[in-house]
Amino acid sequence: MTPKWSVKNTARLTGAAITGVLAIAAFGVVGASGSSLDFGQDLNKPVEQNVVLPNQIFEVVCVPGIETEVGTAGSGQVMVSQTDGIEVLKATDLGSGEEIEPTSSGDLTVYKSKSPVGLTIQSKSDANFLALAQSEANKDVRGMTLDQCQPARATSWFTVGATTVGESALLTVSNPSQQATQVTVHGWSATGPLEETPTITVSAKSTETVNLAAYFPENERLGIRVDATGPGAVSTIRTVGMDGLAPQGVDAITGTDTASETVVLVGLEKDLDEPKLRLMNPGDAEINAEVTLLTEEGLMGLSGSETIVLDPGAVFQLSLDGLGTDVASVVVNSSEPILASMSATAVGKPNEDGKKVGDRVVWMPSLPATDFATLVPDGGDKARNVLNVANQNADVVEVTINGKTREIGPFSMITQEIGAGELTVASAQPVYASLTSSVERKDGKVISNIALTDAGESIPTTKLVVER
Question: Do 261 and 428 meet the contact criterion of CB atoms below 8 Å apart?
């Protein structure tokens, strides 16, 4: 019987651009940058396995800089770990189209930019690709943002932003590929889908930013879906707040590509103001949701959230005030797939007009994994980086954080302060993790949070399918 071979790029689920060469030896072992697949001798049994292609080239977008309606504020940079087997072939400023010359800082390669940066990367091994985008601003816009670099994807969902007085929701769509892409933006509000469905064309190796108030004005709680054609796109929403002349912070959020029946948002701190949970029903049927908390002491209920009913297409917002613990992870269990995010404000000191400034932080869903890796920013003496790990299992789980092992009790979480540099987390069972970074400034704290992702997904894989 003659085997039938097919190679499917699993990264196409997120639209990642990738090239590579795969060598196949019939009935033997295929080698791909440290990955191997033993086909065995059973000719009637199909074989599937994800492998890392040798010398593959792929593209990601990193979004530093804080773009506003009046221009770009503050400073931005992309930090890439200098890892054997991972090479950045080119860094492109997607705002100007010009190549960015890197600088070195210890074991990091740094690309300064106030616009989204497209990185063309070659992986010669299955080592982790570690990169982090960082921005800071302290004038009309105030705050800090952190974001991991992302491949292009066909669909991005958001449950963030508002277009009411004092609020701006700026959608940035970046295209790292060599061909143009067109995106369609869909909006939802408290009562369901919104009528406008604007389209945006993004040229090759470029970026476009629009204010969502132009399409969805006067909406206090937005849900957004961005659908991209062709090579896909990386979509980010910057949510910016002002109270008169007092900045109320900024955060930059890259969307998620799917809804889930269980959503975990990791690491809400008690000392933050106005914590809110936003939920969205993306389906056509009513759903029931329940919200619980994973704390350092164990599982806790949340008063008033025993059962939340969401109509089709509705966006719902719930106050998380009165958190009875220093830190908690919020778990949403739903009868059907649901979307969720969480936000809060770090309140600072009064400005010259007597109004307190602030910075906002948004949590996006964490996904379960057994291995995480990320870069941790160096914010100086006044910085604090905290790793949050949540255990949604009914058993005690051991986690190894930068080589040291700790236990997490059933349905609980831990926190640990982390120094700047590389962070690795390994667990015997799937857990959820995030990193919260903050800096104490003279006028108060600025803060950002990123959901950590599976370290094994930092390099795109290809699905090898053998039908025999």
Answer: no
- Whether 53 maps to a domain, the answer reads no
**Class of residue 218 by CB neighbours under 10 A (exposed 0-12, middle 13-18, buried 19+):** exposed
Rounded to whole angstroms, the Cα distance separating 251 from 144 reads 7
Rounded-to-integer distance, Cα 315 and Cα 222, Å:
7
In a domain, 29, yes or no: no
Query: How distant, in Å, are the alpha carbons of 74, 94, 194, 279 from that of 118?
Result: 20, 6, 32, 31
- Report the C-alpha gap between 360 and 240 in whole angstroms: 8
Query: Is 21 part of any domain?
Result: no
42 inside domain: no
**Cβ neighbours of residue 437 closer than 8 Å, sequence gap 6 or more:** 144, 146, 376, 377, 379, 383, 384, 385, 386, 447, 448, 449
- Report the candidate in 177, 169, 168, 224 with the shortest Cα–Cα distance to residue 202: 177
- Which strand ranges, in their side-by-side order, compose the sheet holding 117-123? 18-19, 56-62, 117-123, 86-93
Strands 397-401, 404-408: pairing is antiparallel
Classify residue 222 by its DSSP letter.
-
Q: How far apart are CA 312 and CA 335, in angstroms?
A: 13
**Residue labelled with tokens 């609020």:** 167
Q: Which 3 state secondary structure label does DSSP give 247?
A: strand
Provide the domain limits for residue 306. Answer: 58-457
**pLDDT digit string (tens) for the chain, length 468 residues:** 444 433 444 433 333 444 333 333 333 333 333 444 555 555 566 767 666 677 789 999 999 877 666 455 667 999 999 988 899 999 999 999 999 999 998 899 999 998 999 999 998 877 889 999 999 887 778 999 999 999 999 999 999 999 999 999 999 999 999 999 999 999 999 999 999 999 999 999 999 999 999 999 999 999 999 999 989 999 999 999 999 889 999 999 999 988 999 999 999 999 999 999 999 999 999 999 999 999 999 999 887 767 899 999 999 999 998 888 899 999 999 999 999 999 999 999 998 889 999 999 999 999 999 999 999 999 889 999 999 999 999 999 999 999 999 999 999 999 999 999 999 999 999 999 999 999 999 999 999 999 999 987 777 666 667 665
